[in-house]
Amino acid sequence: MTDARSKRLLPILDAPRAHGGRSSMTCRYRCGDACFHPVPNRSDNEYFADMVTEAVADRLSRRGVLRIGVAGTVAAGLSAGLTLPAAAAEKSGTAATEVAKGSSLGFAPVPPNTLDSIVVPNGYDHDVLIRWGQPILPGAPAFDPHRQAPAAQAMQFGYNNDFVGVLPLERDDRALLVVNHEYTNEELMFPGWKGHEAATDKQKQIAILAHGISVVMIERAGRTGRWKVVPPAKARKYNRRIHGRTTFAFTGAAAGSKLLRTSADRTGKKAQGTFNNCAGGITPWGTMLSGEENFNQYFVGGDGAPEADKAALLRYGIPTDTRYPDASRRWETVDERFDLTAEPHEANRFGWIVEVDPFDPDSTPRKHTALGRFKHEGANVRLSDDGRAVAYMGDDERFDYLYKFVSSRRMRAGSGAAVRRHNLGLLEDGTLYAAKLSFTSADEIDGSGKLPSDGAFDGKGEWIPLVKGDRSLVPGMTVDEVLVHTRFAGDKVGATKMDRPEDVEPNLRTGKVYAALTNNTDRGMPGKKEGATEVAPRNENKHGQILELTEQGNDAAATRFTWSLPIVCGDPADESTYFAGYDKTKVSPISCPDNVAFDPAGNLWISTDGNALEANDGLFAVPLKGEERGHVKQFLTVPVGAETCGPWIADDARTVFVAVQHPGEVDDASFEEPASTWPDGSYARPAVVNVWRNDGGRVGS
What we know:
Elements: H1 4-8, H2 24-31, H3 54-58, E1 65-68, H4 86-91, E2 118-121, E3 124-131, H5 150-153, E4 161-168, E5 174-181, H6 186-189, H7 201-210, E6 212-220, E7 227-229, E8 240-242, E9 247-251, E10 270-272, E11 277-282, E12 288-292, H8 307-315, E13 353-356, E14 366-368, E15 376-383, E16 388-395, E17 398-400, E18 402-410, H9 417-424, E19 430-437, E20 458-468, E21 471-472, H10 479-484, H11 486-492, E22 498-499, E23 501-506, E24 513-517, E25 545-551, E26 560-568, E27 578-579, E28 593-598, E29 604-608, E30 618-622, E31 633-637, E32 643-649, E33 656-661, E34 687-693
Parallel strand pairs: 1-2, 9-14
Antiparallel strand pairs: 3-34, 4-5, 5-6, 6-7, 6-8, 9-10, 11-12, 12-13, 13-14, 15-16, 16-18, 17-22, 18-19, 19-20, 20-21, 20-26, 23-24, 24-25, 25-26, 26-27, 28-29, 29-30, 30-31, 32-33, 33-34
């Protein structure tokens, strides 16, 4: 076995990048090499548009905690080991890391780096809360990477944790942690991996069961901001694993549709499993919403599907000119449903918003057809003025759309069984909308990212209804066609095409809605007709932007809104970036926003995925009002090859929970020769961490 430490110090920046800041391994498993294939949306709508020396590494703690001093240098004289991007290097030790007077975020920002560790500010600490393979159900065996088994994985914490939510229990020192498991990296999971074509049935079954969702009881460590997992035997009834073999029920107007029927389910009302669960949300009635995203990569046989189904398969990123897509896992050898030649409608049973009741481990999780089918990043709910549930959603694809759903019924207050049954049905019926935007300075957008003469990227918009209850509002499409093939419906109504809308979340303090538009390097490329627009002001957009949307009258159920771009990401030294007018010499570089969250003060927290600034991904915070609006500050960085997921800020703001997904996801890395050895110093292992202030105070303040 290659020396782990030498592997840990591999200069990841020298690895070939397949797309933006990603490795080709990421491109394969994250989205099935989507960027190497034609854009699925071919409609004519307008478009929305580091290395550290060995001596330094030896001085890093086993746990990987590294703190940054107020002057922006690494504690214990480690600053010489950091190599920063040009703009950050110029600012290090000066304005970039000083705490501005009056800032509502009183921590010294972490400099960009490529350390194989979690890096947090001075005055903070962190710990790993739970790792892949950790037992969560009674009777589960201790994790041993050399003795993995399907039955064991079904009782253990899944792989590649993404969304994190925390729901308080009756005791304020205990809570339920709910976590998505998006996808698997078999090269990093299995010793002696020889490729998908040579994979054993056992390995494939383990991978299927490593997907899904985990529900785990946690408890506070004393009176601190640190949390720990309650042993499974003491977790009472709550712990649960939902995976690729779990039964789900379809709800809504498309339940029972012929488009959802298969030979295993001739009713079209039940589905087996959930895959590629990305972001999510916690509802006001205490359930978890999980988004099924890049499900297309699990299927083969698109070339043999019926001709009538091929257009829809292609629109959802499933090739119809080959049996085996580039990212195929060959799961059809252990389960025929993954072969679209045999089961052409199986793919239609994925791409939904899933709802799970963490408080009832015996409940059947549901897939809500009323919220439409596309590559859901997640869904987050706010109540309208009259108490209806409004869910905001993004379709994570180049040039695809932003959506919202408004329930037909109002949420009820109270805690009785009847009230809970009512609220659990809110997402089963309502109106589904797609967003269409207009622009104020369209003629000034030249693709360079230059700010228009009116001083803002902004405009208006409207929500175009697609379905109301069981009635289609899209000419030429039935209600089940609109809900199962929602992308086609968005095409027909002229929805605005965007730069990969991922997490979309309302700020519950202000009502404003924020969307992470991650990137779109295809925009304005030669041979592409989709150039820059005011909401996507740069061609070859590597770094992404944040969209701020204000509903008319601040009512979530409104059908009109205004919008702006408060943040256009990238190196602050780049003229094409924008930070709400804030002094860019004081701003942390940020690239590829993915998930968003809010602390109790209403500050926006942004996690990144695919940093195209040659540094590790991280978690950032930014005030949204006052003199500090736009002052982006980096709060932490994750290890080599990892993506920052979550985040979740505890209700008392004493803890930030972050999912560290796919550490060591670097080209040519393997279990035996890892590019990262986080968190335990041997091989890479996805995990959830919690971060807290040493003095017990509120995180970020």
